[in-house]
Amino acid sequence: MLEVSNLDTFYGRIQVLWGVSLKIDQAEIVALVGANGAGKTTLLNTISGLLPPASGSVEFLGKRIDGLQSHAIVELGMSHIPEGRKLFPDMSVRENLEMGAYSKRVWKRKQETLDEVYQLFPILKARQRQLAKTLSGGEQQMVAMGRGLMSRPTLCIIDEPSSGLAPLVVDGIFRIIQGLRDQGIAIFLIEQNVQQTLEIADRAYVLENGRVILAGESKKLLQEELIRKAYLGL
Questions:
Q1: Which is it for strands 211-217 and 203-208: parallel, antiparallel or unpaired?
Q2: Do 78 and 62 contact (CB within 8 A), yes or no?
Q3: Most buried of the four, 18, 107, 137, 193, by CB within 10 Å?
Q4: Which of 176, 129, 167 is nearest to 148 (CA)?
Q5: Which CATH number is correct for 1-77+153-234, 3.30.70.3400, 3.90.1300.10, 3.40.50.300, 3.90.550.10?
């Protein structure tokens, strides 16, 4: 579904990604693990068209998308749920969700998709007229995820969904992510909670200083000494 090959990305004159390659298949959760500053968000922004790569390629559903603008990538079926939620604070829950359905491909099914999002996150239906800035952190994350799903993606990139949330809320978010995979949506998950992430992911990549240093099945990576020492404190 997604294939990244030998990707180099710069911020100005500073190189952040070095020859990054990875792939994501249909209906699987792939995790990206790494310390702060490793280049994880830069990689996501490059994939989703927010940053241009200096070299390398990104293919989605067999089509080269590096060089395409973000809205064109969304139109193809990729959704990016950013770190920090990035909601429109003075817009209602419903208005925030509807912003995710702006693309021509899904606009006509907006109400149908909205009903599906409300089934997934019932609290959002009860709060649909409430301003986003008045919601709790967990509710705001639900809005961010719901907005990303309004574009009816086949691949959903999710950046740090558990940031600042209580453990019980995080458990619920992770169950929903697993449910999306079971519905056939591929998930590219970036998350600081390495133990919990590797437990639900099918495969994972470890990014360090802008380079992929380890990759494989998540259950096997949980046993790797590097992962246990650097990320699990074992």
A1: antiparallel
A2: no
A3: 193
A4: 176
A5: 3.40.50.300
